[in-house]
Design brief:
It is elongated, with a radius of gyration of 36 Å. The chain contains 14 helices and 16 strands. It has helices at residues 2-21, 35-50, 67-78, 98-105, 132-153, 157-165, 172-177, 188-194, 223-231, 234-253, 259-276, 282-297, 306-321, 334-360, and strands at residues 24-30, 55-61, 84-88, 94-96, 108-111, 116-118, 169-171, 183-184, 199-202, 205-208, 216-218, 374-377, 384-389, 392-398, 408-415, 418-423. By secondary structure, the chain is α/β, with parallel strands linked by helices.
Length: 426
């Protein structure tokens, strides 16, 4: 009998140890909420299930993003087979705009000290002013969605509604006091200590967390995901757009170089992908394209700089309007716009000068190139004979015969395959 109880105790300890040893998967989402961010979180939750992790910690620091991407991301959290703990951190991080919806969707919502949450008003994705009816419709839809999540998770739905309708914000301490989040934690180890023993209700049943002193497995973005997510940065997208433009201008100013054209096309395609993941203002895109068209036309139309100046003005205005900042995503840095427009203007001047000089340059190929060239007499011109021009033999007629061999003559005309030459006086 003692042996039986000893075996039972050892089995219980082994089960408890195995449960405690179950890892916690750590996902890091820093930046705008884009389709790539939603797919990354979904992949992280699937990997947590595969690893039989007992929880997922989603570290969040976002200025906001696309509402459709936020809904897709939240769908992964709400249907997750493992508890998802959303932690707004580290200190200085924020969960703004779409970040409010994601924080509210977590099975446990936590914030680090010196962080903020709020300003979840809904605006048009293209930056256009929404009409009164449409704005009320979109806002009410967002409020209903957020209140449903908040009710499910036991959050303060009154404040969540104000975050959408009035764009209010709270500090971490205020969020805890208003029951917007469940707890504060300065770091992930402390967070796991404080949620230890909590019972989480999932779609598949209840789960008790045993997260104290458990291993944390980081699941970062793959290099492809990281590259594509980096491209969703407005500054990166703008740099790619500018570099692609400069490269294509270089190709047009000196046709045949090939590399600038290929490189510029790749940069522009990447820029288009990046802009497709951001809340762009279509008026800004139109102005940027107009600026590029005017700068290109400067190479082919004599406008005395009018097209160049107009193109730079359109490009500058379009750059300032390119990103709809009301979605919470910051626009292109003004310093970057100034430096890019300045570089583009200088490069356009140099490229335009190169094109102009190439148009004034004498003909370098064909029959016309031979006019004015010097030839060496091979057989006496009396008045016709053979001359040597650039290593080739030609039949030539002299205007002043005879001309002895080895003398120099100048080509003054071409008639078919016969040259007309004149002696060169010493």
């Amino acid at each position: 009998m003692p042996a039986f109880f000893l075996a039972l105790v050892l089995w219980c300890l082994s089960v408890t140890g195995a449960q405690a040893a179950s890892p916690v998967v750590h996902l890091t989402l820093k930046g705008p909420i884009t389709p790539l961010a939603a797919s990354y979180v979904a992949r992280g939750i699937r990997e947590a299930e595969t690893r039989k992790a007992q929880a997922v910690v989603l570290q969040l620091d976002t200025p906001g993003g696309l509402m459709e991407s936020m809904r897709e991301l939240n769908a992964s959290i709400l249907a997750a087979p493992v508890p998802v703990i959303v932690w707004v951190g580290p200190a200085g991080a924020r969960a703004a705009s779409a970040g409010v919806f994601i924080t509210a969707a977590g099975h446990i919502a936590a914030m680090a000290p010196s962080t903020a949450i709020g300003a979840a008003s809904v605006v048009g994705g293209d930056g256009a002013e929404l009409g009164k009816t449409l704005k009320a419709k979109v806002t009410n839809d967002a409020v209903a969605y957020l209140k449903a999540i908040g009710t499910e998770r036991g959050r303060n739905v009154v404040w969540l509604e104000r975050a959408v309708r009035e764009a209010v914000s709270l500090s971490a301490t205020e969020a805890l006091a208003n029951k917007v989040v469940d707890l504060l934690a300065p770091d992930i180890p402390t967070l796991l200590q404080r949620v230890d023993g909590r019972t989480i209700r999932l779609t598949t049943g209840s789960s008790v967390l045993h997260t104290a002193n458990v291993p944390v497995t980081a699941v970062p973005m793959t290099w492809v995901e990281d590259l594509l997510y980096t491209l969703s940065n407005p500054n990166i997208a703008y740099i790619l757009l500018s570099i692609g433009t400069l490269a294509l201008l270089a190709e047009m100013s000196q046709p045949g170089m090939i590399f600038p054209g290929v490189f510029g096309a790749i940069c522009l395609l990447l820029a288009l992908y990046a802009l497709g993941t951001l809340p762009v203002n279509y008026a800004g895109v139109a102005l940027v394209l107009l600026g590029l068209i005017l700068l290109t036309a400067e190479f082919y139309v004599v406008s005395f700089g009018v097209l160049l100046v107009g193109g730079l003005i359109a490009f500058t205005l379009g750059s300032l309007m390119l990103i709809n900042q009301e979605q919470g995503i910051p626009g292109v840095a003004p310093s970057l716009i100034v430096s890019t427009v300045g570089t583009l203007g200088i490069f356009s001047l140099l490229a335009g000068r190169a094109v102009y000089n190439s148009m004034r340059r004498p003909v370098q190929t064909g029959m016309e190139f031979m006019i004015g060239q010097t030839a060496e007499v091979l057989t006496s011109l009396d008045p016709e004979g053979i001359v040597l021009v650039e290593g080739e033999r030609w039949v030539a007629r002299s205007t002043a015969a005879p001309v002895p061999p080895r003398d120099k003559v100048r080509i003054i005309a071409i008639h078919g395959l016969r040259l007309t030459v004149t002696p060169i006086k010493e």
